[in-house]
């Protein structure tokens, strides 16, 4: 009954905004942009285990490209509407599982009543989160690209350790983060904004061809919640985010989703400080595994004209497993849309009693071109 009421309320909000007026202004605006990111990765790690051969080379090159289409229009009564389509344009599948065709595709509607997004996009719990990665430079610091160069016993580090300052719905990115959903963002009142997302099945994305089974092991009836404050206090810009994600496991052998994060970022004359604490409890873990997960972050950054630098730190625990990562990043706006960067990660992955322990350094040197 509770689910039915909440779903009906969300749909009623959509209908209310859409039916504010049937008279649409003629014409739509279309803008096309995108980005391409070339990077060279250099790694020095202690772990000698590699069952796939993917980490046997210390130097790797990567190239990541997206094309963005943005459509917008406005009705005669001021109702704004449009769509966002982010296409993948790589020569291989995306390494964050964002699909071989598109990453995000959604319709949006906006009025004095707020904003509604319909389709495949991140939920309110991801969009409204604040942590040290919020102020990070280069590829994103503790939420950046170093994960693609870290070997942990021949498996992806995220399969064993929590390596991102995210909730479970956003931790793996790609299809899970951008599952088909409805999201509502309230107007901002004195700097305070509320966001609510509803996802029937976090395994479903795109057309009906993307439907997954009801017992395939992911989470259903997922609600993402966000409460954000953005304002200025005594010349200091303040951003506070409290987010949570709650859902039901499709399998009796997997724990339900119940996770939250509280973070803040402060900025004064180019200097920024940020930090957060997050708790997954035992969300999405096997029943009886006692793998409670929590994390905290801390970071500082400075921006002066075209140059920016940051230092961010992540410490996470999952049961007896611990992952720490200290990342220093810098970037420089060399020309309009052209931003070279360098980032250095010092990580330590420690799993009690196993051979997947690893520590080392990853250096990333690259260039963004945004257009």
Give the tags.
Porin, 4 helices, 16 strands, 371 residues, 8% helix, 16-stranded antiparallel barrel, mainly beta
Number of strands: 16
CATH architecture term:
Beta Barrel
Largest sheet: 16 strands, antiparallel, barrel
Structural class: mainly beta
Work out the helix count: 4
The end-to-end distance, rounded to whole angstroms, is 48 Å
User: Roughly what percent helix?
Assistant: under 10%
At the fold tier of CATH, the topology name is Porin
Lateral strand order in the biggest sheet: 1-2-3-4-5-6-7-8-9-10-11-12-13-14-15-16
One letter per element, helices H and strands E, the order comes to HEEEEEHHHEEEEEEEEEEE
Outline type:
globular
Q: Given this structure, which CATH class is correct?
A: Mainly Beta
Can you characterise this structure?
The protein contains four helices and 16 strands. The chain has one domain: Porin. The protein is mostly beta strands and 371 residues long. The chain has a 16-stranded antiparallel barrel. The N terminus is likely disordered. The protein is 8% helix and 51% strand.
Write the layout of secondary structure elements.
Elements: H1 2-18, E1 29-45, E2 59-74, E3 80-88, E4 102-111, E5 114-120, H2 124-127, H3 168-171, H4 174-177, E6 180-185, E7 192-201, E8 219-233, E9 236-249, E10 257-268, E11 271-281, E12 293-304, E13 307-318, E14 321-332, E15 338-350, E16 358-370
Antiparallel strand pairs: 1-2, 1-16, 2-3, 3-4, 4-5, 5-6, 6-7, 7-8, 8-9, 9-10, 10-11, 11-12, 12-13, 13-14, 14-15, 15-16
């Amino acid at each position: 009954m509770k689910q039915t009421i909440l779903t009906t309320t969300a749909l009623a909000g959509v209908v209310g905004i859409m039916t504010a007026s049937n008279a649409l202004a003629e014409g739509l605006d279309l803008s096309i942009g995108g980005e391409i990111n070339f990077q060279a990765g250099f790694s020095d790690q202690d772990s000698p285990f590699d069952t796939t051969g993917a980490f046997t080379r210390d130097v790797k090159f990567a190239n990541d490209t997206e094309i963005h289409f943005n459509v917008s229009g406005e009705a005669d009564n001021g109702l704004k509407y449009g769509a966002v389509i982010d296409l993948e344009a790589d020569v291989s599948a995306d390494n964050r599982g964002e699909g071989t065709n598109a990453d995000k595709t959604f319709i949006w509607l906006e009025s004095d009543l707020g904003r509604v997004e319909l389709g495949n996009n991140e939920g309110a719990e991801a969009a409204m989160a604040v942590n040290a990665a919020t102020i990070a430079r280069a590829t994103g610091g503790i939420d950046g690209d170093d994960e693609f160069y870290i070997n942990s016993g021949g498996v992806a580090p995220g399969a064993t350790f929590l390596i991102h300052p995210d909730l479970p719905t956003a931790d793996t990115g790609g299809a899970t983060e951008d599952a088909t959903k409805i999201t509502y963002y309230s107007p901002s009142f004195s700097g305070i904004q509320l966001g609510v997302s509803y996802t029937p099945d976090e395994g479903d994305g795109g057309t009906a061809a993307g439907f997954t089974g009801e017992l395939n092991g992911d989470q259903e009836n997922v609600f993402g919640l966000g409460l954000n404050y953005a304002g200025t206090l005594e010349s200091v810009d303040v951003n506070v985010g409290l987010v949570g994600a709650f859902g039901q496991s499709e399998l009796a052998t997997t724990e339900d989703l119940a996770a939250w994060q509280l973070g803040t970022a402060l900025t004064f004359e180019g200097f920024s400080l940020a930090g957060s604490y997050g708790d997954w409890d035992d969300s999405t873990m096997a029943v009886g595994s006692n793998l409670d997960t929590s994390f905290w972050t801390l970071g500082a950054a400075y921006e002066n004209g075209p140059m920016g630098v940051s230092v961010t730190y992540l410490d996470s625990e999952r049961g007896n497993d611990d992952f720490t990562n200290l990342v220093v990043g810098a970037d420089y706006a060399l020309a309009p849309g052209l931003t070279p960067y360098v980032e250095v990660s010092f990580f330590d992955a420690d799993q009690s009693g196993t051979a997947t322990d690893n520590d080392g350094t990853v250096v990333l040197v690259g260039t963004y071109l945004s257009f």
